[in-house]
Structures are given as structure tokens and as C-alpha cells.
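=== Given protein ===
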Amino acid sequence: MKGKIALLGLCACALVQTSQAQQSDVGQVIIPALKNLEIKRVYMAPEDFKPYKGDYNLSNGKTMVLRRFNARMFAQVGTQSEHEIVPTGNGKFSALDRTMQMELTVERDGDITGTMSYIDEDIQKNAAALPEATIITVAIR
């Protein structure tokens, strides 16, 4: 009988702890880190990357450069770190370190437009007090 009473007491304590934990989490949203997501690469022949190589004007006033070196592709925004990118779909690229991703469209006249999201290192340096990454989404013109 004493064992049953002790078991009921433990269950009651567990329920109180669970309800307190749920109350303290109200208003918090947990978003999984990008690092946990798998990048699904697709093959892109070197000649298929040629239309994408070059400099791009971003809607935030910065410039992005896409280049290829041997069999690897790289993207760099302004004076920030260069990131190795891989194709993930038709006109879609993602950085291996998951700090940027972009979707580019080759227009009929050969111009390229699109969007990209990246972690802006310049904002992170200037706002060292902020522990979160600042993700910028821009249009490519």
C-alpha cells in the first residue's frame, strides 16, 4: 500500500513539473537550425553553370559574385566570406555551410533575375551583442 501511495505522489509531482514547463514555454517558438537539414545536390555540368557566372546587383545595394574554380562553385556577397555552393535544382543553389541559398532564373534575353537569402556577416560584426544570425532576403537584378 505504501508503494502505491509513493507511486501516486511521484506521478503527481511529474504532472506539476510538466504543467509548469508548458506554462513557461508559452509564446516561444522553436525553429530547427538549418544545419540539420540535408542539402539535396543535383548534378550540373560545367557548361551549364556558365550563364550564372558573373556579378549580380542585389536589391540591398550589395554585389554578389558567382564563380567556378575547377569543379567547385563559389558565391561571395560584397567583401564577406566566399562560400562554396552546390546546385540543388534548376537554377537553385545552396551554400555547403547553409549560410546562403538562391534561386536564379535566366530570362529570354539572357538577363538573370531571382532571389537569395544569406546571413549578413557585416550586420553580425556591427551588432556583436546579437547572438542570432541576421538573414537577409534580396532580389537579384
